[in-house]
Amino acid sequence: MRIVFFGSPAAALPSLQRLLEAGHAIELAVTQPDKPAGRGKALAPPPVKEFALARGIPVLQPEKIKRDEKALEVIRKINPDINVVVAYGQIIPGSIIYLPKFKSINVHFSLLPKYRGAAPVEWSILNGETKTGVTIFELNEKMDEGDILTVEEVDILTRETAPQLEARLARCGAELLLKTLDQIAYLPRSPQDHSKASLAPRLRKEDGKINWTKDAVAVERMVRAFSGWPGAYTIFRGLRILIRAGEKISEPASGFLPGQVVGIKREGLIVGCGQGSLFLVERLQREGKKEMEASSFLRGLRIEPGDFFS
């Protein structure tokens, strides 16, 4: 098939790679503009751009594709059989969605209609889901509301972080995408039940601040869900400390307050949470520094039982 591929982050690369391996012709990669990254804020290209250019695939980076007549004209000249969208990051206009023979399909990392939006993987972990999956659906002009073509369900593993789960779903989605394209002409289209829809809005940096009055299960989910960006964090003596790994523990304790350091052991810091629960902090990171085990972290920043994380 002649395909225009829309995608930006690393999670889109398995689908792009598998399309090429299967012999599909990727005529154009549409991705987000380069963005400032790192301490120097130098412009960095999206992973899809780097991947595409390395393989001789033309790249288009519209600032706002909904208002970009050039993008529409380029795609019209290509005359693709289908547009494939994987984590692109912009709303695509109907003039592009409905242009190809088989229109446009989206590889979405949730079991639609649950978790429509930009951060389905993070919100599924945060909300304590035990299962998620990949849904491939026909794009329309609303957010993740098109008719469903194919679905594959997967378990969320114990202690699996959002980046780990997303990478697994990306691989799963790539294989499901090939199967879907092989049957695209005659697959039934199943309308979504909008009454069962839930949203997974884009994350903000402040979403990562840990509320220690929640129980340790909720804190553990938060650490896993925000393991990539924005990172689950707390404040200690005015410093922003990222909590990179940890788990609920069942050691008996009493007389502590939420956020209080209850004890220190070889495995990490024991912190009091809501409902009398305890959380073991295993790995930490000061903002702008390297992530490290709690034992190494404590050599550089003194924390003692009775101290508080705010």
Fraction of residues in H or I helices: 10-25%
- For this structure, what is the CATH class of the largest domain? Alpha Beta
Radius of gyration: 22 Å
Structural class per helix/strand content? alpha/beta
Instruction: Give the name of the CATH architecture of the largest domain.
Output: 3-Layer(aba) Sandwich
Count of beta strands: 15
Spatial separation of the terminal alpha carbons: 55 Å
Domain count, please report it: 2
CATH superfamily of the largest domain: Formyl transferase, N-terminal domain
> The CATH topology of the largest domain is what?
Rossmann fold
Contiguous uncertain segments of 5+ residues:
none
Alpha plus pi helix count: 8
Approximately how much beta-strand content do the residues carry? Answer: 25-35%
**What is the global morphology?**
elongated
The ordered H/E elements are EHEEEHEHEHEHEEHHEEEEEEH
pLDDT averaged over residues: 96
Question: What's the main sheet like?
Answer: 7 strands, mixed
Walk me through what this model shows.
There is one protein chain. The chain has about 300 residues and is an alpha/beta fold. The radius of gyration is 22 Å and the shape is elongated. The chain folds into 2 domains: about 1-195, Rossmann fold (3-Layer(aba) Sandwich), CATH 3.40.50.170; about 205-300, Methionyl-tRNA Fmet Formyltransferase, Chain A, domain 2, CATH 3.10.25. The strands form 3 sheets. A 7-stranded mixed sheet has the order 5-2-1-6-7-8-9, with helices on both faces. The protein is built from 8 helices and 15 strands. Helix 1 packs parallel to helix 6 and helix 5 (about 120-125) runs antiparallel to helix 7 (about 215-225). It starts with a strand and ends in a 10-residue tail after the last helix. Strand 6 (about 80-85), helix 4 and strand 7 form a beta-alpha-beta unit.
